[in-house]
Design a protein that fits this description.
By secondary structure, the protein is α+β, with helices and mostly antiparallel strands. Among the domains are: 2-69 and 121-196 and 306-376, FAD/NAD(P)-binding domain (3-Layer(bba) Sandwich), CATH 3.50.50.60; 446-584, Glutaredoxin (3-Layer(aba) Sandwich). The protein contains 16 helices and 24 strands. The longest helix is centred in the middle third of the chain and has 32 residues, at 360-391. The relative contact order is 0.12.
């Protein structure tokens, strides 16, 4: 039997697995990726990429291409609720409510202040081929589609896996030092006996990916997501959610669309390509529409979290570790961020720059973030029922009762004004989903690979919308524009790329300290000074206001862009070498 030796075996070639292969390759680490299917998934699945994910993809040089191929900013600046697209009835083609979303409209100033990038809307069926194309340019990423994991064992030295090449029905062995399960939770986690906690089946969902021209029925191109609520269907999740998928146009002229339907788990009515068309026509009030169904996807809404992210030399990432309802779009984003956190740690250990205990901090850091994200997605999913109540819908009431609620909502009467105001106040609570700025970029880590400075964390926004930038250890480095001559760059451009970076005010003593730390640990530190006479200037004073130190202090940023340590002033230069060693050789509970 043929044997392959590799540092890292990645099981799963979707968004998480491909991202991990890319990140590892950029850090000089070879991986062997296996994916049971012949190519990437044709299902739309996730489509929203939040600011933190786009910052990571920008570091890989992929952001500009994604923006050029995906929804323009002006076409994803809002979300809206409607009664239908077509129809001539008294309650048809009504706008129920529209709100700013994803950094658009009234949100633009804050989102642009806090990140050099904007969010993106790019369906996973398009994103994965782009990631695959990019990964194929990296020699260290060994990509094997139509290869399936058959079995595996592990010992103190590594993992031995049997792989089936489904093209020719031959098997071979892979000997890896570490294995990453990015398989959606289908094989590795269950085989290890790692249990998932949470809601296993909240709703059943059907996603219909279809092609149709509906441009005549849309007069506002700004909403990225359109929710349909009408009296007959009984509320948000009994109706449907529609998103433009392009691929050439992302406005009313979009060639393709996805439409989500939700069902109770015990509902006997499940849809295939033939039976879904009448429902789609009925929901949109477009009886003459002849959609071409491209693909149907049946799936269940879950909110579950793995009890463990690591068993020996095997790690879980992405959907193998956590599965979310689609609201707030945290699933794929969390998966890519898992890969980003794990990649630099694997590279440091495999290259002999860090101790094995550093890998323990992957679970310590990422699992609490995933726990919050799962719970947040469950909350925002359920909150759509609150919007139904704001409209005045009564679950189980006769259709005529709910029709009357809509009539009153749209009426030119004092009661209509009151009902619309009530709906506005209730619907605004859904900013937890569509304006989740703090949830998306404000998360932080607490682990043995973070050296705390004793300062308290900022209070997290109860609604997840207000982000407070800080350089407190564990937090993502805040964004600020700085200049090198006429060239404007983000502070995020100065860090990452597989290296530790020390941001200073320009004191030469920090450069000396960094050289000593490099000599002591074998890990180089890039030193970047920002301020008068430094490598970069800060004419607006934004960085000086954010850095959280004096002009003589410093901020040490890990390869993943999170602050590992900061020194209030230049008196702490002697601590740098010991601090770096502490991050790379952390003392964890298990070591």
């Amino acid at each position: 039997m043929k044997t392959i030796h590799t540092p890292v075996l990645i099981v799963g070639g979707a968004g998480c697995g491909l991202s991990l292969a890319i990140f590892l390759a950029r850090l000089g680490v070879e991986s062997w990726l296996v994916e049971r299917y012949p190519t990437t998934s044709p299902a739309p699945k996730a489509h929203f990429l939040n600011q933190r994910t786009m910052e990571i993809l920008r570091e890989e040089g992929l952001a500009d291409e994604i923006y050029s191929l995906s929804t323009p900013a002006e076409n994803m600046s809002r979300v809206g609720w409607y009664t239908s697209l077509g129809g001539t009835g008294e309650l048809d083609r009504k706008t129920i409510y529209v709100m700013d979303a994803f950094g658009g409209g009234s949100l633009q100033e804050a989102y642009e202040r806090d990140s050099p990038v904007r969010s993106a809307n790019y369906a996973q069926l398009h994103l994965e081929p782009l990631l695959l194309k990019h990964a194929r340019t990296l020699p260290a990423a060994k990509l094997n589609y139509h290869h399936a994991l058959q079995s595996f064992t592990q010992n103190d030295d590594g993992v031995v896996a049997t792989i089936l090449n489904r093209d020719d029905d031959t098997t071979y062995e892979v000997h890896a030092r570490y294995m990453i399960a990015a398989d959606g939770g289908r094989t590795v986690g269950p085989a290890l006996g790692i249990e998932m906690d949470g809601m296993e089946r909240l709703f059943d969902m059907v996603t219909c990916h279809f092609a149709a021209d509906v441009s005549a029925y849309i007069d506002d191109d700004s909403p990225m997501i359109r929710w349909f609520i009408n009296p007959e269907k009984g509320g948000s999740w009994g109706s449907g959610v529609m998103v433009a998928l392009g691929p050439k146009h992302y406005d009313r002229h979009s060639e393709e669309w996805l439409l989500h339907f939700a069902f109770q788990p015990d509902d006997p009515e499940q849809f295939d390509a033939e039976s879904v068309v009448p429902r789609l026509q009925d929901l949109l009030r477009l009886p003459d529409l002849e959609p071409r169904v491209i693909r149907m996807n049946n799936w269940k809404v879950q909110g579950v979290l793995a009890r463990e992210y690591r068993r020996g030399r095997i790690f879980l990432a992405g959907d193998a570790a956590h599965r979310h309802p689609p609201t707030t779009g945290l699933g794929l984003n969390s998966a890519i961020q898992d890969a980003h956190n794990l990649a630099w740690k694997l590279a440091a250990v495999l290259q002999g720059k860090a101790g094995e205990a550093l890998l323990e901090t992957y679970e310590t850091e990422r699992r609490p973030v995933a726990a919050r994200n799962v719970n947040w997605a469950l909350l925002t999913f359920q909150n759509h029922l609150v919007i139904d109540a704001g409209i005045g819908l009564i679950p189980g009431a006769p259709v005529e009762v709910n029709r009357q609620a809509f009539r009153l909502l749209f009426s030119d009467t004092p009661e209509g004004v009151t009902r619309r105001q009530r709906l506005s106040e209730v619907a605004n609570t859904q900013r937890m989903e569509f304006q989740a700025h703090d949830v998306e970029i404000g998360f932080h880590y607490d682990s043995a690979a973070i050296v705390p400075d004793g300062t308290p964390a900022p209070v997290q926004s109860p609604m997840g919308d207000e982000y407070i930038p800080v350089t407190r250890p564990g937090h993502r480095l805040p964004h600020a524009w700085v200049y090198q001559g006429a060239n404007k760059v983000s502070t995020l451009d100065l860090v990452g790329r597989g290296r530790f970076t020390l941001l200073t005010g320009g004191a030469d003593t920090w450069r000396d300290a960094a050289a000593q730390a490099t000599q002591a640990t074998g890990t180089s530190i890039a030193v970047v000074s920002i301020g008068p006479g430094g490598d970069y200037t800060d004419p607006s004073g934004t960085w000086a206001a954010l850095r959280g130190t004096s002009a003589t202090g410093a901020v040490l940023v890990r390869p993943d862009g999170h602050v590992g340590w900061r020194a209030a002033n230049g008196e702490d230069t002697g601590s740098l070498a010991a601090t770096l060693a502490q991050i790379l050789q952390p003392i964890t509970q298990d070591h």
